[in-house]
Amino acid sequence: MSESSEVTWQTYFGFSDPYENQNDVIENIIDTAQDSGYLAMEGPCGTGKTMASLTAASYLIRETDQFNNAIVVTPVKQQRQQFVEDLRVINSQLEEPLAGVALVGKRDLCPYGREDVFPDGSSVQERCDDLREATADLVSEDSNLKVQQQFETDATPDSSPIPEEEKWWDPAKGRVLVENAQRDPMDEDASPLHTAGRTAPYARNQPSTTPEMTESGNRQLYCPFEADWYGRDKGSPVTFESGDNHVVTTEELLPNAVEIGTCPHRAMTVLMKNADIVVGNYNHLFDDASRHLTAPILDEQTLVIIDEAHRMEERVRDLLTDTIGYYTVKRAKNDLEQVLRPARQGPQNKRDIKARLAAHDVPFEAVETAEAFYDDVMEWFETQVDDELRDQFEQYGTGLSWNSLPDEDIEVPLRDPDEPEPDEFTRWAEQVGYGGDTFRMLSKVGLAVEQALEQEDIDRDCVCTAVGALFGQWWERDHVDYFREIELEYSRKDDRDVEKPWMNYYNASLVMYNCMPSEKIKEILDEFGGGVLMSATLEPLSIFEEVTGLEELATDEEEPRVVSSRTYDLTFPEENRASWIVDVEAFKKRNRGEPALENTNSTRERYAYVAREIARSHGNILLAWPNYSEAEWAANRLREEIEKPVLLDQSSSHEETRELKREFVHGEPKVLVTSTRGTLTEGVDYEGDELHTCAVFGIPLVNIGSPRVRAVQYAYGDRFGAENSFTYALTIPAVRQIRQAFGRVIRGPDERGVRIVVGERFVPDTLHSVYEYFPEKEREEFVRMKPDFLASQFRDFWES
């Protein structure tokens, strides 16, 4: 970049001097984005990725015509907060601050949902959607809600003027509903709604219209917070000035909106549409269900910043996976019966319903076919699950089921994961007469039924359209990129169904598991103007570009995009860290056996010795094992053999994990034992003297026997070559987890620490070695040694 350009981006840089590589990072992002391209960047702790990406975004938004806004997505809550804080630092020195907002979900913002006002058993999302729909009906210009003269006066707008031809609501009606809901301070029985440290102007109980408010005289539940938003012409009284340095988060948005009486989620949406920089999570970019919120601000003039991009592949795979629950199929069938039942009660009813369906080009017989299909699907479901459990568990069906069924989820594959053939469900459907025409027409039938019920004023939360669409996708999607199975999600119930005992233990679903997310990632990234995908662990970058669709984006025949990559090395002083490979035989299931204390085979004894030597070393020690079972074994061994306190991390709640980390870093030195795939080995900072050594034992591969994992491996082989399938699908993600784990130690230029990997698979040129998948500079730093030298090497490092 030219010298004048450098000065321009420095105007937006939040600190006096950039880190060693930060200059280069900022310029690379700007140069690539101005070419409408994407930069894939690995930068370890100390690179300053967050500030660099925000500085580049600020420059591109303010100083070019190419970008209007930027969206930041990260799956780590701590990182979202870091982006907010860095944007505030940038704004603190600008005369015209950039408008910023951090997005959260309805459940975090809904005043009623936060205080458990909704009836038991109803989700915040569903209840909120119902209330929004009811409120929209009441404020509609066509509704029969009465409006007195005092409400006709226009209030001061909190939004940009909306063209009259686009308005279907009457703001005065919104103000009528707000006034009706406002709590009378003199009414001692009207308990106020308190949340987020503020009191709303409404009672805790949800309001409804009174008989005299409408011509029909009916009572209708509604949301006063939503009504207030309409009363303000879809505006927000909460502004960017409410946030610290013009960046609004839940901490400012929620209490202010509650006290004023407007919907916090709607206020957030208004701010989002006017923001320069929006901070969210992966759902806001990759999940169809969440994209409806962000869709209005995303286009070819949007810059995208994807943080923790090493997790993108797995996260998007989960978001692209669809399920159809047994009870959801039952609800869809019941939706159709709401139309069919009255039609079967008389010829005139049937003629009326036929006419309504015909208006949507759906014959009555198609609804009957759809109902029969869902009925048969439920019966197939029941038989399939019953047969599977009888095959797997000896006592199932004997009256002793509760003693034999596991309290964990069960996968029931519907095809051989290694053979992309049609699944058992699809084959069954064809055999009984349900082919592609049936699957494809289900969503159309569902929509016609829903609209017919609306015309009859039948208030019902229908699912038949959505379920029909999913069955249509089941038929259309191929059998390589999507793996079909039944998932039994453990959910113990009190009532016992003797006829179908599995229902007492599991919720059953048909699953379309996404095996290959690269095409969807490419498709989404192609919608935007450019951006950066960054993480501390993206190497090997060439493979990252393949599996995330970036390579296809760069080689697209019609409109290829610029894709560049860059790896930055750790800049903290090398003398402050030691990096060792402990050369012992590979820690494989075949040679280590079961993780039981009585198992004293030679492999386990050797690893127990290594763990003991590391745990006895100076300071706080983090030991990461391939899974939680191995971690438990190691912790139990260490408790018998060392004097230091030993803490064990197991799969647990977020709060329990935070409490365990607090216990670990306070007080006397301790050993914390966990899984390399756990939450304490990634996205967690151990600062100063909180962590001195991190050791990773073995390769943390996911369960390679799982049908889903085998299907993913096949799909990767089909796309990237059979010789690469295991490496791309399993080994590379595991290596990134390892590097995330030992990256917890040494988080600043003045910190000292030791990074260790244990096992011969880390040694170069050994069988199935993963050495080549580490960045070149990192490989150079790791020194190979035998376990017997650990004690002396620790002593030399800490005494130097």
Automatic annotation (TrEMBL):
Q: Which SUPFAM superfamilies match?
A: P-loop containing nucleoside triphosphate hydrolases (SSF52540)
Query: InterPro entries annotated for this entry?
Result: ATP-dep_Helicase_C (IPR006555), DinG/Rad3-like (IPR045028), Helic_SF1/SF2_ATP-bd_DinG/Rad3 (IPR014013), Helicase-like_DEXD_c2 (IPR006554), Helicase_ATP-bd (IPR014001), P-loop_NTPase (IPR027417), RAD3-like_helicase_DEAD (IPR010614), XPD_DNA_FeS (IPR042493)
Asked if the Swiss-Prot or TrEMBL record annotates the protein with the keyword Secreted, the reply is no
Q: Where is region (Disordered) located? A: 183-218
Instruction: List the GO molecular function terms.
Output: 4 iron, 4 sulfur cluster binding; ATP binding; DNA binding; DNA helicase activity; hydrolase activity, acting on acid anhydrides, in phosphorus-containing anhydrides; metal ion binding
Q: Give UniProt keywords alphabetically.
A: 4Fe-4S, ATP-binding, DNA damage, DNA repair, DNA-binding, Helicase, Hydrolase, Iron, Iron-sulfur, Isomerase, Metal-binding, Nucleotide-binding
What is one Pfam family matched by this protein?
A: DEAD_2
Task: Cite the Helicase ATP-binding domain residue spans from the record.
Answer: 8-361, 271-342
Note whether Zinc occurs among the keywords. no
Database matches in Gene3D superfamilies: 1.10.275.40, Bacterial XPD DNA helicase, FeS cluster domain, P-loop containing nucleotide triphosphate hydrolases
Amino acid composition bias (Polar residues), ranges on this chain: 205-218
Instruction: List GO BP terms, alphabetically.
Output: DNA repair
Q: What is this protein called?
A: DEAD/DEAH box helicase family protein
Name the lineage. Answer: Archaea, Methanobacteriati, Methanobacteriota, Stenosarchaea group, Halobacteria
